[in-house]
Description:
alpha+beta, 33% strand, 17% helix, Immunoglobulin-like, globular, Jelly Rolls, 5 domains, 17 helices
Amino acid sequence: MLQQAVTLKDNWELLFDFEHRYEYPADALASPAWQAAKVPGCWDVLTDNKLADGAVWYKLVFDAPSEYGGELAAIDFEGVNYFSEIWLNGQKIGEHEGGWSGFRIALSDALRAGEANELVLRVYKQGEKYPLRQCLAGFLPDVGVIFGGIWKPVHLGLVPQGELADVFVQTQTLNGVPRASVSYRLDTAALSNVVLTINAQLRGADGTVVTELLGIPAQGGHDGVIELPGIDGIALWSPENPVLYSVELTLLQNGQRVDRYEHRFGFKTWSIDDERLLLNGKPVQLRGILHWGWYGDLVAPIPDREAIRAELNRLKEGGFNMVKHCLYVPVRDYYELADELGFILWQELPMWLPEVNEEFKARALEQYESIMKEIRSYTSIGVWTLGCELNHEADAEFLKDLYEQAKRLTGGAIIRDNSGSGECYGGLLKEYADFYDYHFYTDVHFYPDLLSRFAGPWREKKPWVFGEFCDYDEFRPITQMIERKGERPWWLQSDTKMNPVARDSRWQYHRQDEKLAMLPLPFTEAELTANSRESAYVYRKAVLEQVRAYPHINGYTLTSIQDSGLASSAVFDDFGEWKQPPARFKQINGATMIAVTWDARRNWINGGDRLTPWDPFNYNPGEAIRPHLAVSHYGDVAIETGTLRWTWTIEGQLASSGERTVERLVTGGFKEIAVAEWTLPQTEEALQLVLQAEIEAGGHVIATNEWPIWVLPKTARLPEQLAAIAIDNGGNGLFRDWAAVHPGIREWSETGDNDGIRVLLTARWTPAMEKFVAAGGHALYVERGYGPLAVKQMPFWRESLQLFHNHPIMNAFPHRDHTSMLLYGLASDLVFDRLQLGEHTPIMDRLDARIFELDRYMIEERVGAGKRISTTLRLEGGLGSQPNGLERNPAALYLLDCILNELL
């Protein structure tokens, strides 16, 4: 490291030169347009034009100490994005390409010791001159904007005559005893023939010497390895117990210190056993959050140390133990604090949708080496990925070279070439990967099939960790947010130079208030916010409970940490604050989690056994319910004995309870403890019950969870009412089985006698039906995409809010103003295109939380003298793990009764 170093952080100025007026530093220095600049920082905070890639000139006048005279001086830049040329006192002293790692520029005879010196840089970020997809810009250009400038600290100092370079601290456990090895390269340009020695010292957290090695011979220009012998009593680092030690290397010549290196680290060992990811020999679950390096007000990912500490502590409150730095490299403080606070880091290197050619390959290999050498000694880094969602552009030879380089540089760390996998993103099917990693974004009812298929037992045995998944775009309370900030932030502006994300029509957060003002919405901002936040929790709870039931899924990364101009799917809002109470979120994201699983069912259908999906959240009165209470445990120690307790409550009143002893639950175990079987009460109205469970061990409650369950009665109809209902079997037969258990219901005739029919139930629409309704009849029409009403294909649980209008049908349906598991069997991937509908009354809507378009799930229309209720909801279920058929879909049957009560 540099000796007698000073940090150059004050009195910097910059000059915007987006029109490329200045070819030489002298020309730029003559401009009157220089302005104060913050270093470290980025230029983007000082301009509305965030698309321009440069040039931007920086200058600094500094006094060089007189002691530097006759010595080899240099400047260490920790990070400049992306390409920089450097002049000192009018003499060009170097240039550098690559924004994520540091570099050194020797000053030679350009420095004036004891005098004032003028340092000038010309900087370009990725853009027109250095194209984004060819220059490892990562994902920040998609989240908001890639930043430019001197974004990390700058240091001036003397190059030691002998220097410990590329130091790498590794730890392992041999025969149960932790030990460390420290590798290094000894640069001694001025002392090539001089014998040097190294003293190595290992200190505990309190500064006491644990072990030391003295007088280790070292030879300039050579690599070396110092083995620190294992010592009993060394504590291992883990998220639960982040004990740190420090290693100090002192390079000596004739007893005089030439250089010194110090690093804090923890003793830990990562390994893989079959489908298990192990930390210190024990199963570990990565409960991670996706971090794109988004800090809107800063533009560049340069939070200060206290901001990082606060961010990590907030995450820990919600049960997280990992942060995935996705396609960017954070500042040094983030690694140091993750080491200190006990956070695992998943480091993903910044290759996203690259345009791969030979030049790009060389650039990636060179810059990846620099990045990895700089950060590989941090204890918190547990997993590496070398790119994200790579397609066919990244060929096998290239990924093999990157993987082998990364393995060599990290000492055999746990690495994957392509987060998300080639099989899912049209990339390389032959993977260079130590674990499986998928990015599933889908509705709740599609997860069982995806999990089962991708977890096939015939596949090579590897751990599975989701590199990102389970997003849910929530409604941003934009009026409240702007009022609190005092102005509209740049990432919600419509000017595409100020907010480049606004160019993409797939997300229109910048137009949210404008578009909402044009919609006929009878809901307040507060109501929409509350709806979406509760719905998001329901969704994530359902998904995470499914995932925890697969012990070979060793973890996940939720998308994402903080709302941005690209997405509102984060756990933190625009101010970095929890959207949910963190204690509540920890119930579904903690080291120990109570989950519920259900009995499997099959039926003999058309001559053979078939799996029968069913709805475990909605029941008829008097039915037996059998939730299997299971515990997923990844605590630091096994649960030797404990108690699982559960209660059934109705409107807060205890209705039933039980408990069961928990006998030895090992770390990494998923075990059924009890079946909370109960006979549901009789009721004539829709009733919500709550199953609550807690597990106590060692005198403390270590996990809680709860599940709403709906009891939905069927309406008993008089024979004359049934005789007034007709079903149409000419469509998809949706109502056939239901009608079979309701004698008296008639069948619609397209050409015959329909006298006495008051209500028609149909999944198609014909001229005869139109005539029937126009003459005063009523109809329920279920649209499946081939009828007269225009539809769109849209996800149900994700990217949207479901809105429930003040209408007799919705008022009778117990939705509680958010999307809950009540709607599990009804969730549809079709909506009515509102703008192509005729005059109608809305009953249930879909508000797109990304582009703020309003469409309909259910409407009421006047057709002549009659009434038609039209819906795209899945009364018959049938998508993914939804129940198959109306008669097996309790919530659909109850909704049908609500509709019939309105139509009869």
